[in-house]
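Please complete every field before forwarding. Incomplete forms are returned to the sender.

SECTION A: IDENTIFIERS
Entry label: holo-451
Bound molecule: flavin-adenine dinucleotide
Molecule representation: SMILES string

SECTION B: INPUTS
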Amino acid sequence: MTVLVVGGGIAGLVAARTAAARGQSVTVIEADAVLGGSVRAVDLAGVPIDIGAESVATKGAGALELIAALGLETTPPRRGGAWLQTAQGAVPLPAAGVLGIPSVPLADDVRAAIGTRAAIRAYLDTVRPELRVGKQETLGSLVARRMGRRVLDVLVRPVVEGVYGVDPEDADADALAPGLTTALARAGSLAGAVATLRSNAPAGAAVAGIVGGVHRLVSALEAELRRSGVRILTDTGVTAMQRVGGGWRLTTSRAENETGGTAEGFVDGEHVVVATGGAAARGLLAPHLPSGLVEGWPSGRASTVVALAVDEPRLDAAPRGTGVLVAEPAPGTASALTHSTAKWPWLAESLPSGRHIVRLTYRGRVPDVTASRAVADASRIFGFPLGPKSIVGTAQQVWEQDAPRALIGVDERIPLIRAAVTEVPELTVTGAWLSGTGLAAVIADAGSLGS
Ligand SMILES: Cc1cc2nc3c(=O)[nH]c(=O)nc-3n(C[C@H](O)[C@H](O)[C@H](O)COP(=O)(O)OP(=O)(O)OC[C@H]3O[C@@H](n4cnc5c(N)ncnc54)[C@H](O)[C@@H]3O)c2cc1C
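SECTION C: PREDICTED COMPLEX
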């Protein structure tokens, strides 16, 4: 069986590994010059750092098993926690929550973040009966109704926007936190539901990093695929898929033996795995699925990551823990900061003393974030000025992200697409747009194809 895997992100690489392990003859076709998709390394002051995904959720065994099988070592983030930047100043991010929703509304850390008045409003959740259980409602509306707008705007929105790239007022509560509305019905309050979800969650850190960076997953997968004889074509976008005989003919943006040319090429195979991002996948799949199924999909959004290498010994004390989420950021300013060297000890150890890596995230496509803007944002968040001379390197990447599954109206379309794909001979589809955002979900889905 010859298998063509379209897209060389983590989903495509894992699908290729699964197919190769079955003895199939596999070709990975990747549009970009490098493999990895949203997992990518950039060189910053001479060190490769993650400019995309930088951690893996530890729930579910698939991702951790894969990382171990590839000979890579996982590591928990350093304890010390994240902070929240509010209009009033920086406070530790309240600890006992889910998606930023507190389980103890009157806890000291919640009061410090939203003020006592808003915390008392949130506490009303625990004494008012829940009368609307079962009615479809967005996460934002649920939180505002039960706990008030301050909880939504200051605690929940930064987490949900930052992690899932979706406005909570457009998000399906159960797609983001499976079981939340059922637990709400049982517990009678949102705080009680959050406490239930937390008590059901496995103990230990929810995420892990990879020593050396998550991008090592890509190089390790690539090396293993090459050892298994998998053919890898980069700089080769697939522009169309056609059923030919019992298999497929893919039209590619570049003929295989073209170097630097733009001539179209064709690659034939018996089975196709579509593992691109959602927009590209839907374009390729549309002619093969019932009409209306992939058309009219909600659009995604972009984000921009700026990484700074800074020589600043005052950061040795990790004044904002492992990072900061910014509540209600002013337009054009950073919505989150990760203090990477505080979060990942192996990274700090790989750098000269006093050197730090700081990653800032901006909502939207901001290709012109200047280094001075990023430095000003980082200075405001850390609470002291980073001098221009302390900056020893900058790197930047704009990410186009697909509409996440948590966006209202998306989740219910996924089973329909999966069912329609099973009707098309010799076709499988995987990737974050179907499995859900995040490496753990992507790896679990791509690793189980055909099983
Ligand atoms: C900034 C950022 C930070 C993140 N942080 C984390 C994190 O810390 N932890 C976590 O678990 N997740 C994180 N994620 C999410 C995670 O990275 C993704 O869910 C996951 O990597 C998606 O993998 P994928 O293979 O489905 O898609 P992608 O990574 O998008 O890969 C798709 C691939 O298909 C290629 N392609 C597209 N069109 C074509 C075509 N026509 N022909 C051929 N190839 C094509 C693309 O070039 C790309 O390489 C982050 C994402 C971003 C953007």
